[in-house]
Specification:
By secondary structure, the protein is α/β, with parallel strands linked by helices. The protein folds into two domains: about 120 residues, Aspartate Aminotransferase, domain 1 (Alpha-Beta Complex); about 240 residues, Type I PLP-dependent aspartate aminotransferase-like (Major domain) (Aspartate Aminotransferase, domain 2, 3-Layer(aba) Sandwich). It has twelve helices and 17 strands. The longest helix is centred in the C-terminal third of the chain and has 23 residues.
Length: about 400
């Protein structure tokens, strides 16, 4: 179906932070499959693990025990706030499972009247009917009405409006610690802490969407750790499988009290192939120094991008984000810049608010940063000249 505006490039192989097109050209990948290829392309440990598992067992369904599923769940519990985990195939499945858990919690607690979830403008949680109803973005909901009920949206970062939106039907507050699709907009850490306090005050569950922010992207395993708080529920995906389809929602034992036998299920979720890869990704991310290295390289990339903004004030407004989840807010059409980067061999990702997402694999070093910034600089200078002449860059 004609639902994608695809670039006219096809890739045949990848290695680390690089992709190689069918015409032999090499691209520096600072898109990472939209923050999915967390360990780059063809990471040796992931390749070996997947190939080994593929020779043994692919799928059995959740009618039986899956040892690697139990192992990955135990490891996630040990390295997070959670007590229990449900594995899915994708981010939006994980997201919707978290919403179901919230409703089930209040039903089991004797307060079934609480079923509505407060969300924030500019959010993105996926493309199911419920997920687009939660985000309420016009381009997502157009033509798909009537909207699924149960979601009340408030302005980004506005605690007064959020408090005023709480009613006796409110079940939870739900945010992304950093909005990805919304334009790399980080919530202030004090704001996140206030959400925890508000939820405790009103008996609500705090639900974080860490599909894009989780799994080391910000330099912590999960982005909410920077605020020193914990949610009651969290959904993750993207980087959790390093490129293999995998998602999960995690919760405290208290929040998951209603999720008994038959309350939720999946045919493919948690299959042996996905669980083998999920454990392999975690092997690498939990290695001593891995996340510290993400913070270091992320700081270096931020410094270099800040300098780009200083050199091209007519092209860029600012850099925002954390770790290796950064955004360049442009003053000229971001799509023009992204096309220019691609023509010069650098892949990036568009986002709302005229932002260019910079989402490289977490295994990059300073050399890859320098190469990417050199391309950004070169294209930005060309766009600045073309803009001054009243033209556009031929990308």
């Amino acid at each position: 179906m004609p639902t994608y505006a695809r670039a006219d490039i096809a890739f045949e192989r990848g290695e680390g932070a690089f992709l190689f097109a069918t015409d032999g050209r090499r691209y520096l990948d600072f898109a990472a499959g939209i923050a999915v290829n967390s360990l780059g392309h063809c990471h040796p440990h992931l390749v070996e693990t997947l190939a080994g598992q593929a020779r043994m067992l692919w799928h059995v369904s959740n009618l039986y025990r899956i040892p690697d599923q139990e192992r990955l769940a135990e490891r996630l519990v040990a390295n997070s706030f959670a007590d229990t985990v449900f594995f899915s195939n994708s981010g939006v499945e994980a997201w919707e499972g978290g919403v179901k858990l919230i409703r089930k919690y209040h039903s089991a607690a004797g307060t079934p009247r609480r079923w509505r979830v407060i969300t924030v403008s500019g959010s993105f949680h996926g493309r199911t009917l419920a997920a687009i109803a939660a985000a309420k973005t016009p381009k997502l909901v157009d033509g798909f009405g009537p909207m699924v009920d149960g979601f009340d949206q408030v302005a980004f970062g506005n605690l007064n409006e959020l408090r005023a939106a709480i009613t006796d039907e409110t079940a939870a507050i739900h945010v992304e610690p950093i909005q990805g699709e919304g334009g790399i907009r980080p919530h202030d850490l004090d704001y996140l802490r206030a959400l925890r306090e508000i939820c405790d005050e009103f008996g609500l569950l705090l639900y974080f969407d860490e599909i894009q922010t989780g799994y080391g992207r910000t330099g912590k395993l999960f982005a909410h750790e920077w605020a020193g708080i914990t949610p009651d529920v969290m959904c993750v995906a993207k980087g959790i499988g390093g490129g293999f389809p995998l998602g999960a929602f995690l919760a405290t034992e208290r929040a998951a009290q209603g999720m008994g036998l038959g309350s939720h299920g999946t045919t493919y979720g948690g299959n042996p192939l996905a669980m083998a890869v999920g454990n392999a990704v975690l092997d690498v991310m939990l290695e001593p120094g891995f996340l510290d290295r993400v913070t270091t390289v992320g700081g270096y990339l931020r410094h270099r991008l800040d300098a780009v903004v200083d050199r091209h004030p007519a092209i860029y407004e600012l850099v925002r984000g954390v770790g290796l989840m950064l955004g360049l807010k442009a003053r000229v059409p971001a799509g023009e810049l992204i096309a220019g980067f691609r023509a010069e061999g650098l892949l990036t990702v568009p986002a709302a608010d005229n932002v260019i997402r910079i989402l490289p694999p977490l295994i990059i070093g300073e050399a890859e940063v320098d190469a990417a910034v050199a391309i950004i600089d070169r294209v930005s200078a060309a766009v600045a000249v073309a803009s001054a002449d009243g033209d556009t860059v031929d990308a």
